[in-house]
Backbone:
């Protein structure tokens, strides 16, 4: 049996998965994986096998069961698990039936219909940010001026979070997403987020929106409301922000695709799905723990072992997508797993898609001469963060 590999992180091309996925993915769809704290588990790079794992209830998403494929950001005492069991309301770290209970309570707020209804609000927010960019003039950082504030505004508005809480919440959520920090930095960031959300719920500071609706129902207590807000904020800002920034960079680096999108605005839905597949910002994938002995891709997995689904590699599976390393906005990429699969598929997927469908055309229509203000090799990518993207995107027009 081949020696276990470690999770790769180095990328030769900013748009491709880490280089270390390529050879294992060519050899087989599932591989032994070595975890930093001494355990061995499994790495899935095949699309078919990934869907099987993510759809199988014999695999758990409970945080306290999972081995981390990456070193903790600071040394942990021997035997201590990096992530504790989920608190009430933290549905993204639970299995059914608890996961199902919370998803049912909030799911209608993130339905395809609701996302469609929010498009005018997304377009208005995008136009206001682009107006400010135009008034200021280039060069400027697209992440700071557009990619970061647009999805943040949408999710904050949806939850009803007041304006004075937004910057400190987002800044400290960003800190929690870092892969390297001191213990004190993490403690401080977690404490600030918890204090702000406690204040939001205790003082009923929220405006009309998801939190107000959930609180009015009376079925959820303080802890549940706080943790639902935390889960939605954590998943609703950083992800879409990085897709906007990295997607713009990818289109600028592939001018034939950008020109095609300008000539064929009807391709925007295709373009969004293809960018989600091609870029796959969830760079370390999705982890599951086997609850019993079972078989995936011909390999025997033992109860208690962690399986990491390498979403960036899965979305470049040549058995699923023709010429997978080519960006092609005419491709039907709807089979991609950029939002995951199964019961844990991202609850905000429709809102994220709606935001991207508005953001890309609005930006390129407003600034037809949009271009990078630095060489592409000078742009800092986010290998040091939980979600991949770029730290800054200096542009002008």
Residues:
């Amino acid at each position: 049996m081949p020696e276990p590999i470690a999770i790769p992180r180095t990328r030769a091309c900013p748009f491709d998965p880490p280089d270390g996925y390529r050879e294992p993915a060519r050899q087989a769809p599932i591989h032994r994986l070595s975890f930093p704290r001494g355990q061995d588990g499994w790495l899935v790079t095949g699309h078919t096998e990934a869907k099987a794992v993510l759809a199988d209830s014999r695999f758990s998403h409970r945080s306290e069961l999972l081995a981390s494929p990456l070193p903790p950001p600071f040394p942990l005492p021997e035997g201590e698990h990096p992530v504790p069991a989920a608190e009430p309301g933290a549905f993204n770290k639970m299995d059914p039936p608890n996961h199902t209970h919370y998803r049912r309570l909030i799911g209608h707020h993130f339905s395809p219909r609701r996302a469609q209804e929010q498009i005018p609000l997304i377009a208005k927010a995008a136009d206001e940010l682009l107006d400010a960019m135009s008034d200021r003039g280039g060069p400027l950082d697209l992440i700071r001026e557009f990619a970061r504030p647009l999805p943040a505004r949408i999710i904050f508005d949806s939850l009803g979070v007041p304006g004075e809480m937004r910057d400190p919440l987002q800044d400290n959520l960003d800190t929690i997403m870092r892969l390297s920090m001191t213990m004190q930095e993490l403690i401080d960031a977690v404490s600030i987020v918890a204090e702000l959300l406690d204040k939001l719920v205790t003082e009923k500071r929220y405006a009309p929106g998801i939190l107000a609706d959930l609180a009015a129902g009376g079925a959820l207590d303080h802890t549940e409301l706080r943790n639902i807000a935390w889960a939605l904020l954590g998943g609703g800002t950083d992800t879409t922000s990085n897709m906007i920034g990295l997607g713009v960079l990818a289109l600028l680096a592939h001018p034939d695709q950008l020109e095609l999108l300008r000539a064929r605005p009807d391709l925007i839905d295709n373009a969004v799905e293809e960018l989600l597949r091609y870029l796959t910002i969830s760079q370390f994938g999705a982890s599951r723990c086997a609850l019993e002995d079972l078989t995936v891709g011909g390999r025997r997995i033992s109860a208690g072992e962690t399986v990491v689904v390498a979403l960036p590699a899965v979305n470049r599976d040549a058995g699923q997508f023709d010429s997978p390393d080519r960006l092609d906005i005419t491709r039907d990429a709807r089979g991609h797993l950029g939002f995951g699969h199964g019961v844990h598929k991202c609850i905000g997927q429709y809102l994220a898609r709606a935001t991207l469908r508005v953001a890309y055309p609005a930006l390129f229509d407003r600034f037809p001469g949009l271009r990078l203000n630095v060489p592409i090799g000078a742009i800092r990518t986010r290998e040091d963060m939980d979600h991949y993207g770029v730290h800054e995107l200096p542009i002008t027009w």
Remarks:
- The first strand starts at residue 30 and ends at 34.
- The beta strands are 30-34, 40-44, 59-60, 140-141, 286-290, 294-296, 299-301, 306-309, 371-372, 394-396.
